[in-house]
UniProtKB/TrEMBL annotation:
<feature type="binding site">
    <location>
        <position position="101"/>
    </location>
    <ligand>
        <name>Fe cation</name>
    </ligand>
</feature>
<feature type="binding site">
    <location>
        <position position="57"/>
    </location>
    <ligand>
        <name>Fe cation</name>
    </ligand>
</feature>
<dbReference type="InterPro" id="IPR003829">
    <property type="entry name" value="Pirin_N_dom"/>
</dbReference>
<feature type="domain" description="Pirin N-terminal">
    <location>
        <begin position="12"/>
        <end position="118"/>
    </location>
</feature>
<feature type="binding site">
    <location>
        <position position="103"/>
    </location>
    <ligand>
        <name>Fe cation</name>
    </ligand>
</feature>
<protein>
    <submittedName>
        <fullName>Pirin domain protein</fullName>
    </submittedName>
</protein>
<dbReference type="GO" id="GO:0046872">
    <property type="term" value="F:metal ion binding"/>
</dbReference>
<dbReference type="InterPro" id="IPR011051">
    <property type="entry name" value="RmlC_Cupin_sf"/>
</dbReference>
<keyword id="KW-0408">Iron</keyword>
<dbReference type="Pfam" id="PF17954">
    <property type="entry name" value="Pirin_C_2"/>
</dbReference>
<comment type="similarity">
    <text>Belongs to the pirin family.</text>
</comment>
<feature type="domain" description="Quercetin 2,3-dioxygenase C-terminal cupin">
    <location>
        <begin position="152"/>
        <end position="230"/>
    </location>
</feature>
<feature type="binding site">
    <location>
        <position position="59"/>
    </location>
    <ligand>
        <name>Fe cation</name>
    </ligand>
</feature>
<dbReference type="Pfam" id="PF02678">
    <property type="entry name" value="Pirin"/>
</dbReference>
<keyword id="KW-0479">Metal-binding</keyword>
<dbReference type="InterPro" id="IPR041602">
    <property type="entry name" value="Quercetinase_C"/>
</dbReference>
<dbReference type="InterPro" id="IPR014710">
    <property type="entry name" value="RmlC-like_jellyroll"/>
</dbReference>
């Protein structure tokens, strides 16, 4: 089953410095039909103005993944971590027993990013943060795992949950497959371009909630950058 969630149907909030779209219920946007998808709880599509961002605030018991589309985001937290994550790269924060952090766009232009929250399967552990580059060219024509709760995914950022974040870049006409399994759920968003899954067209920044498929076959209608969560 593929449930299309068009960009225009998403929750919206414009705070001036932040223009956000919410794929799932978040903050003042509430939709009982879009509370979560498996363990995936939040997928926010954020546009952050230059020299603006989220001041220090707390989290706990959540895996928070930031996928930067354009610009860069600068992180600082109560553990003493600081880092700047650029377009195409990923950062992961395991909130664990509790952490405070800030996220600012210190660039001269706007920053676009996906922020993704996944409910952990392991709790009671110390918080942590990490980031690493994932060159878009290395995912050309195939899905690459960027963050994972599985020890076998050696090159991925670790998360404490039964899930993966994967991404692919496809040229128009290319097809990529991902074996998901009927017992799992996937949520896919084209960051750019347009794709087709079976007979369903998914445009840039639309969401596709996928279940009861053994293999996801994605064909690019246009040159596309695809981000997906595979979760229990």
């Amino acid at each position: 089953m593929i449930e299309l969630r068009p960009f225009d149907s998403l929750g919206a909030a414009d705070h001036g410095w932040l223009n956000a779209r919410h794929h799932f219920s978040f903050a003042d946007y509430h939709d009982p039909a879009r509370m979560h998808w498996g363990r995936l709880r939040v997928w926010n599509d954020d546009l952050i103005a230059p020299q603006a961002g989220f001041p220090p605030h707390p989290h706990r018991d959540m895996e928070i993944i930031t996928y930067v589309l354009e610009g860069a985001i600068t992180h600082q937290d109560s553990l003493g971590n600081t880092g700047r994550t650029e377009a195409g790269d990923v950062q992961v924060m395991s909130a664990g027993t509790g952490i405070r952090h800030s996220e600012y766009n210190l660039e001269d232009g706007p920053t676009k990013l996906f922020q993704i929250w996944i409910i952990p399967t392991r709790t009671g552990e110390a918080p942590s943060w990490g980031a690493r580059p994932f060159p878009r060219g290395e995912r050309s024509g195939r899905f690459v795992t960027l963050a994972s709760g599985y020890a076998d995914d050696h090159d991925a950022l670790p998360i404490r949950t039964d899930a993966r974040l994967v991404a692919a870049t496809l040229k128009a006409g290319d097809t990529a497959e991902y074996p998901v399994g009927r017992d799992r759920k996937a949520y896919l968003v084209p960051a750019t371009g347009a794709i087709r899954i079976d007979d369903v067209r998914v445009n840039a920044r639309d969401g596709a909630a996928i279940s009861d498929l053994d293999v996801i076959r994605v064909t690019a209608i246009e040159d596309s950058e695809i981000v997906m969560v595979d979760a229990a």
